[in-house]
Amino acid sequence: MNEQTIVGSLGDAAPISISSSTPLSLIGETNFWVVLDGPVDIFLSPFQEGRPAGRRHHLFQVPEGGVLPGLPERECGLVAVGGINAEVRPAAFESLLSLPSSQVVELIDPWVIALSESLAGPISLWPEHVAPHSGQTAVKAGSRLYGASQSPVWVQADAGQLLYQGRKQSQAIPITPRTWVESIDDAQVNSLSTAELLNDGQLIETLKCFHREAAERLAVQHREWDTQSREVKERSAAIETNAVINAFQQLRTIISTKKQDRFDRRSPVGEGLAPELGLVRMMAQHLGIEQSHWGKTDETHIIPGAPLKTMEVMFDRLGIRSREVVLRDDWYKKDSGPLVVFEEDGSACALIPNPAGGYTCHSTRQDAPPQNLDRHQSESFIPIGLALYRPLPDQPFGLWALLEFALKGVWRDLRRLLLAGMLLGLIAAVTPVATGLIFDYIIPNAAFSQLHQIVFALAMAALGSAGFTLVRALALLRINGRMDWTLQSAIFDRLLRLPASFFKAYSTGDLADRALGFDAIRSILSGVLISSILGAIFSVFSLALLFYYSSSLALLAIALISVAVAITVVISLLQLRYDRIRIRLRGRVESLVLQLIIGVSKLRTANAQQRALAAWIRRYAEQKQQFIYSAKWENRQQIFHAGFPVLANIAIFAGAIKMVQVFDPQTISALSPGTFLAFNAAFGQLFGALTNLALSLSSSLIIIPLYERSRPILDAIPESGSEGNRVEHLEGDIELSEVKFRYHEDSPDVLTGLNMRIKPGEFVALVGSSGSGKSTVFRLMLGFEQAQAGEIFYDGKGLSSLDQESLRRKIGVVLQQGSLRAGSIFENIAGNTSASVDDAWRAARLVGLAEDIEAMPMGMYTVVSDGASTVSGGQRQRIMIARSLVRQPRILLLDEATSALDNRTQTVVSESISQINITRIVIAHRLFTIRDADRIFVLDKGKVAESGSFDELMAADGLFKQLAQRQLL
User: Fold this and answer.
1) What is the pLDDT of residues 499-544, one digit of tens each?
2) Do 524 and 652 belong together in one domain?
3) Are 647 and 559 contacting, i.e. CB atoms less than 8 angstroms apart?
4) Are residue 800 and residue 863 in the same domain, yes or no?
5) Among residues 354, 389, 424, which one ends one of the domains?
6) Where are the strands (E) in 343-400, listed by range?
7) Distance (Å, rounded) from C-alpha 909 to C-alpha 898?
8) For strand 763-767 and strand 935-940, is the pairing parallel, antiparallel, or unpaired?
9) Of 221, 370, 462, 482, which one has the fewest beta carbons inside 10 Å?
10) In a domain, 183, yes or no
């Protein structure tokens, strides 16, 4: 637009300089200003005697050449503040009519869009109805009607009534993709463009009516902001006070020796906290979260009226994984770990498992003391709760630290296990003693009554042994189950938190084998090994009996046992060499098997089954060869332990004979037949326990290679995204500023100072030859890679300062190599979100998939097989696009996501997505698919070589045109 033409048409009024010290009050319905030198920022400010006074709230910015209409005077209004040398020229509102209609539209539309969107509250991604630029739309009662494009659409009810910002409207009102009107009843709504209003002579009056509505809404908005500002100050003061109180409480617990002064799980942590925050911190301490991390969540994360969402957000901030669970039947009697449940009035309750079974309930209601949970109270909860999973600390973790982590919460069962083992050891000592008594006293003296007593004692000992063995087995079972639940959830939670760069070094099958190695370690440690260790420890009673009966033979017995243990350890170490290689090769074999299974259809297409089989056989043969070497040493171990006990008994008998031959008669009488048989029985128990321990330890040496393979998962440091500011809402504004990136220190730069600015709601395409950096831009925007220099901004906030996990939840992503999982179409669209079936249908309609799903035998619940062989390529891509939309993101990243769609379907998808307020960034290889893009960035050598619309770039005769011409050949 020619600024001189506008100025000349609006008269010769003197320009006015405006700045922060001399702002311009936009008051008066007939007043009108043109920005001669800008830009100019528009603020909402309270007025006193027609002048701005008090705190200002920034609304939007008007560029040079824009217009500043006046609004009716109210208690607050708009204020224009310029920068250095900013000037505006006043004019009469009606003087606009002297301009050509196209220029009037170009002046008025940006102002109307900026003002109306500054009035809007939270918007819905799914527009129930969209008003065309011109025509009529039927709107159901209670539904919202949004604008169709970035240009305002003026709507007025022909039949029925409309609400705009909660007020009934009889005049035409503007709407955009971010603003709406709501129908009170079924209505027929007429739509007009700004040009049509101008041609009908209604523009000035309609605009004034809109300004009156805007002035009323701005006054309400200012009062709401003032209230919010006061509440924020009050909350901040309360948080500071509570921080000081908690600090002194923590200091008191350090120096106090009184048990009641220390943390008590029967009350929320910290006095004066919001009940929800106290509950979360109590659960955090129960789960072992360090107190230094508690500050990541505070009262600002409480969502009024949404207790479940509040708890999810707070636990997420602390790095505690939570999962919604259904509370069925006698759930309160079972140990399902720590839970958070909710009463009908929305009060949250923390359920902490009792050592003796059941739960202790801690409610956020002030009048509800902690109490043991019973059936009556359990029935007062809604049937949905949150199960909590304890995470591993965000730091490298060793094996012993991992073992300590897994044992938390099982110490009670370990004490039971130790007690049962000790009693079993004592009972086992009864048999040798009874044997000696029978052969030395009862048989020679024909003492039948004493024999009956001995038999009864042995029977009771057998029953006691069975009972304690059962207790030990149950304790082991509980330890196994709890360690498995704790460890597996923590390991896979850590995998989900690791940076994307970690996964580059491992194939899927290999990484799965490494992750499952922790379960194998847990199974070995908590299974046979614990039993063997306990048996060996409590065989000390048998050792005591050996020395009691004969110290000389006891020393011989210890020497024999030492030889057996030493030989067992040597053979085990020799076997370990081959186990290390075998386990490493097993990971490679499993990785290859997974790849072959996934690529079965491709192998058949290429007729490469025989080559695939040969590749598998080669790797499997290598693994089996190492297994055979290991098995040979295992066989030698078994042969040794089959023969050595016989030799040991021969040695004991020989030792006893030697004692009889050499020692004096007094010694011979001391080693009576009963004593020797008792000694031999005790020796058998001790020898069996210790050799069993040696065998268990030798078989447990496989833990070493298992841990060596799994260790990288513990050594890798998870993303520290939760340290940043949580992203609650995105407008969709993205800026890449001087971004430089290389994948390795010794590799060339992929991006060399990339600059790019994408506005909210804009449709942007990235094109360029292979290696130009298109996919790298996506990875950087998602935080999967870190730029060596420069910064990426979302809504003006640096990516490095944001909680990247919450940011990714606001971004929909569809990758070219994306795939579907086995399950129903609904499960593939909803993913791990809480989306309903209605949400899935809305997403399906947006991508033109609804008709296809309706034609399927089970509709939304039609099963998709592994590999998605039951759907076409186009359907697969549309399901993935629907999956990216179901979360209602504000930004959508598409990497050639419509390559399998025909032209008609692609048009439907593009037109549907264009109706929602979302920023789209597309990597395009087929250039004809981006004709409707608002802007196209052409990347070359890591920089933006060209940018503009499709037609502009084709007319420029540059790199983009060369790429397009190659595709036409």
Assistant:
1) 888 888 888 778 888 888 888 888 777 766 676 666 666 677 777 7
2) yes
3) no
4) yes
5) 389
6) 348-353, 359-363, 371-372, 384-389
7) 9
8) parallel
9) 462
10) no
